[in-house]
Amino acid sequence: MSILITNIKELLQVRDTNVTIVKGKDMKLLPTLKNAYLLIEHDTIVEYGIMDDFPGHEADDIIDATGKTVLPAWCDSHTHIVYAGDRSQEFVDRINGLSYEAIAKRGGGILNSAETLQNTSEDELFQQSLQRLNNVIKMGTGAIEIKSGYGLTVEAELKMLRVIKRLERTSKAKIKATLLAAHAIPKEYKENPNGFVDLIVNEMIPEVSKHQLAKYIDVFCEKGYFSLEDTEKILKAGTEHGLVPKIHVNQFNAFGGVGLGVKYDALSVDHLELMTNDDIHVLQKSKTMPVALPSCSYFLGIPYTPARAIIDAGLPLALASDYNPGSTPSGNMNFVVSTACIKMKMTPEEAINAATINGAYAMGVSNEYGSICRGKKANLIITKPINSYYNLPYAFGDNLIDKVIINGQMVS
Ligand code: NIG
Ligand code: FE
Q1: The model's pTM
Q2: Is the pLDDT of residue 215 over 90?
Q3: Superfamily of domain 2-72+370-410
Q4: Which atom, in ligand 1's list, is nearest to the CA of 324?
Q5: Span from the CA of 146 to the centroid of ligand 1 (angstroms)
Q6: Closest-lying ligand 1 atom to the alpha carbon of residue 87
Q7: Would you say the CB of residue 117 lies under 6 angstroms from ligand 1?
Q8: Which amino acid residue places its CA nearest to atom 9 of ligand 1?
Q9: With the CA atoms of 81, 85, 90 and 92 taken in that order, what torsion angle do they form, in degrees rounded to the nearest 10?
Q10: pLDDT digit string (tens) for 403-412?
């Protein structure tokens, strides 16, 4: 099976060598080819170049992309798309004046989603999640990280992770699983939060690692959720079991979670709505990817991650959706890219780098995904005819995608 795309108005994120991360000033550079072609064989990008040099390849399918832009599919490195039901009632409660924190305090929020998920069958959970996954693929997402964290019991966390495994087997998209057992303190442990941390360390992590149900370990390191001390215990146990940290930090309060993540070689530290100078300095000496989640800031009305301060300090930055029922009921990476430009003053080049190659890095797949490079997987977005790639963030809320190719196959 081969696909040839010809007459591409502009081919974005073309990297002849296998770049796996882009930092600081380099994020402003988005290499492109104008009037290009691209050849896919099976699941792989095998050749590309400018039409003037087109050697006349044959292919099973030929797509004429006149007027259209082609770019790598989005790499969404932070989602919670496996959940049951929704929290639209809490959305309305917030409109009527309750805060996200107040809703959580009265037993809503993550605990509300956990109760619904515990009472949902594994098959039903799979069906609901698959629908969400297929939806985001149509919107151009080709690689996606998915977290547990709405189970909060050994049994329900394992159920979530098995659903993620089943999605992995069912879907053409690249999927990476994360154990986020430390997402909230369950009601039964309200008076004994350390008991829940012990359960995670002594039962959940060993069980998940034994059955290879996750690659990453996450903690919601936040006041009222998990302290630095809890986080450290969990990261230590996780790394001892071969899980790599990718953590929620600095969403509402900044108190050293970034440094702790770096200490445990976190692949990424995510949210970062609040950043201190110390956080920036500690990241400068690390290989950890900072990840911003602008749709979460938009939906909750909280500050946006200070992208300019991060990038101008020479750091890389990735963008992800945070798709979840409470703080971000949307997995639309096109909106994420737009919002990053509009609200965080990222240039279109920076935002596209952040949502492709750096997103791939933040989920450990940038050797195979996130750029147009010979030998990389053929996960691509073909846009409708547009004047330039500036239109992608500019025309916010518009669907500019014509076709999506995942793993060398057209998504219908
Ligand atoms: O990333 N911050 C923690 N977890 C999710 C929200 C969880 C929820 O409200 O259900 C987040 O925003
Ligand atoms: Fe999250």
Answers
A1: 0.98
A2: yes
A3: Urease, subunit C, domain 1 (2.30.40.10)
A4: 10
A5: 13
A6: 10
A7: no
A8: 326
A9: 100
A10: 999 999 999 7
